[in-house]
Design goal:
Layout: E1 2-7, H1 9-17, H2 27-34, E2 45-50, H3 60-65, E3 73-76, E4 79-82, H4 84-94, H5 105-122, H6 128-137, H7 140-162, H8 177-186, H9 189-193, H10 201-211, H11 214-219, H12 231-237
The structure holds glutathione.
Glutathione binds next to helix 4 and helix 6.
Length: about 240
């Protein structure tokens, strides 16, 4: 049995409801790929939420799993692995039945590049500690400007990169690695951050296509076991 350790949706969504800026977790990268309800990528796993707002990622027990103190992490028997990219590539080789990387070398390279734009050049800049630092040292208003600036830069690069490769999805008519990283970055982002997507027609179209994919629907925060049943209760309880 695989154990996936990732952030608690309960706390993550609580912050969104309260209007704070919160970047969507790489957790969703993994759940999209390996959600048990997904026909294509289904793998059974146990899910252990980590409460980031209670700083559980810095708990000494968790630091034994990932000394970086980030989620997600994966435990597979004796194998302990952290970082979405490493986890996905590990599972890709261990369970090659439904590959997320195309065999065509050029297409594979585009997938790596697009996934890396999200995981290295967008997501880390929108992380909770970065937002916290900006809020404290620059000002609350600067957070949204920061998010817009760095999302716009990454989104513009993705539009150019994918324009000659996209089909129904980022690099053709099948879901590949690039889509697994793009979906969580695009879905919900414009609403959450009041971000105008009109300069990014390709990404907008991909976002709509992703929302129709059952595995992606299953991976949305509201479909996770720790998502609160009542947002009202959630807000009051804070
Ligand atoms: N490169 C890592 C980044 C992981 C990451 O940024 N995780 C965030 C959640 S979105 C986290 O654990 N934040 C806790 C913290 O910053 O203290 C990956 O892709 O897995």
């Amino acid at each position: 049995m695989l154990t996936l350790i990732s952030f608690s949706h309960y706390e993550g969504m609580m912050r969104w409801d309260l209007g704070s800026i919160y970047a969507k977790s790489p957790l969703i990268f993994i759940t999209i790929v390996y959600h048990p309800a997904s026909d294509r990528y289904g793998l059974d796993y146990e899910y252990k939420p980590i409460n980031l707002l209670k700083n559980e990622q810095s708990d000494p027990e968790y630091l034994k799993i990932n000394p970086m103190g980030y989620v997600p992490a994966l435990v597979d028997g004796d194998m302990v692995l952290a970082d979405s990219f490493a986890i996905i590539l590990y599972l890709e080789e261990k369970y090659p039945k439904h590959p997320l990387l195309p065999s065509d070398l050029a297409k594979k390279a585009i997938n790596f590049q697009a996934a890396n734009i999200v995981s290295s050049s967008i997501q880390p800049l929108l992380r909770l500690p970065v937002m916290h630092y900006i809020g404290v040292n620059v000002g609350e208003d600067a957070k949204i400007q920061w998010v817009h600036k760095h999302a716009a830069k990454g989104f513009a690069a993705l539009e150019i990169l994918l324009k000659d490769h996209a089909g129904k999805y980022a690099t053709g008519d099948e879901i590949f690695l690039a889509d697994v990283f793009l979906a969580p970055q695009i879905i919900g982002f414009p609403e959450r951050f009041n971000f105008d997507m009109s300069d990014y027609p390709l990404l907008s179209r991909l976002g709509e296509a992703y929302k129709q994919v059952p595995a992606i629907q299953n991976a949305l925060p509201e479909n996770q076991p720790d998502f609160p049943s009542s947002r009202y209760h959630l807000i009051v309880s804070t």
